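Hey,

The postdoc asked me to send both predictions to you directly instead of through the lab channel. I've kept everything plain text so nothing gets mangled by the mail client. Protein one:
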Amino acid sequence: MPWGGVVDEAMRAVARAYGLGEPVGSARYAARGELGRIWRLDTARGSWAVKELLVPAEESAARQDAAFQLAAGKAGVRLPRHVTTVEGDVLFDGRWRVYEWVDLVPGEVVTAAELGVVTAGLHQVGHPASGPVAPWFSEPVGRAAWEELVAAGGEWAPALERALADLVALDALVAPPGAHITTCHRDVNAENVCRAADGGVIVLDWENCGPARPAWELAGILADLPLEDAVAAYRAYRGAGGPAVVAEPADFSMAIVVQGHLLEFYARRALSPEESEENRGRARDRLHAMLDRPLTPSRIDHILAAL
């Protein structure tokens, strides 16, 4: 839908900064994630996906993920082409990014096997890591923080308390990242691997990429899937030449810590009076969805046995 007003004024500034051409009509709101909103902007030169970052980013970090995108594209991974400003920057005003617009098949979810093949392609890129693995992806929440979160209350607190023993047990499985660190997408799932309208699949949302162990990323993807689909994804990954192997509970380290940090993030956002009602509502929905099907030690055992 058109938003007009302030948004159109901002889009005209974005179009000038990136040399996109004169806008044709109002920008249209397309999608919303945790870190940004996507707008479709049609101009005299074509159609563009303009990402409005809700958390300002640094140009240096944006250049690093753009370099990974270029490497992945050259290796055969399909993704929207990112656009730089006329001055050669990835970001404009610290909160805008632009990609070519790609039409998707609405409502169609890619198969587990396709997720596996795409992940194999991403891991075969072998793009060097820009530094150590960030704490969000490597350091567990810990018992004290879990107990504090339960005590903070909220409609989800009883479910969180019931899961407490498993969450603490999961934290004990987390291992240091060690070697074999490369740049990974770090957000591969059925929401970000989509069917393109002109055929094939395309990988979206690259702003979260960074240093990680491929085996950890793969295990996290499998943990998000029903067991039968996890087996299909893993077989497709290995069949497509994926280099990682998921063989022990420690391989789920990133899945464990990300689940923990997300639960903590959503709980604090849902309770914060400073957040908008939209953000609090989204956080409550995410909490209920995650706590309905949390990753547990027994689920990890079942996945490993099936693999």
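Protein two:
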Amino acid sequence: MLLMAKILIFALSGFLRVAMGFDIGLSTKCVEIPEEMDMCHEIGYSEMRLPNLMGHTSMAEVILKSTTWQHLVHTDCHPHMRTFLCSLFAPICLDTFIHPCRSMCVGVRDSCAPVLACHGHSWPDSLDCDRFPADEDMCLASLTKEYKYLHKVLPKPACQTCPAVEEFFTHKRVLEVFCDNNFAVKVKLSKKRTLLGDQEYNIECQVEFITQGSLLPYETQNMIQQWLLINENCTQKMTQTHRPMVYLLVGKVEEGIILVNQVYRWQRRDSQLTLATQKWRYHKCL
């Protein structure tokens, strides 16, 4: 959900709970949201208050601290992650500071803290949810139940033990693995280094289904991208070089969670995988 530039639009979109706001005073100024803050672009406004709600007084500090969160935002661990973080790092220029509600913080924390833990980090004290106002105050609230009802809830990737990357196998064994799971997708992956020195992983071609299960083609590419980001240690093991490689990811969707259980590196002229995928359409699982 985009943050809007006017209090009226905030209220109409269901984000604001009306009450007394916090006076900004004369010590802050409006500045352009810098290009380096990718996560806060296209959110409904282009100017932010400085100092911000994290106490950052310089743009250099804002950029440095906010960019450490961009990787987590890309995992899409919670639909309000960008809204929550941008309201703190790049608060909208209004006559009052608009804090995120405590309930929004709790929702984001409960969904995204496990992803941070997967990367070896804990939820920071600076984002302790008790510091934010209750929902009856003027603050950014969570989406309404009606909005959630109208939008399909997609399966989500989870932090998991890294699946084995198989390079030597028979087509019969691959068929057995297909039978034990409910999706198999063929993807082409590559990695590159960002300007900040981080690794960034891309799916270079359209996801190709071998077996589909409950997943739909237009949904799967984003979900696979999320899995790669959340389980970055697994992705690093898979993509040893910066040269694009093709992989077959095999897994299950259980209770709304996507788990990748097996990975095959699809080598050029790989007759066993090709044979398995050809035989699959006629194969009957025991």
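Summary for protein two, as requested: Residues 119 and 232 are 8 Å apart (CA to CA).

Thanks,
C.
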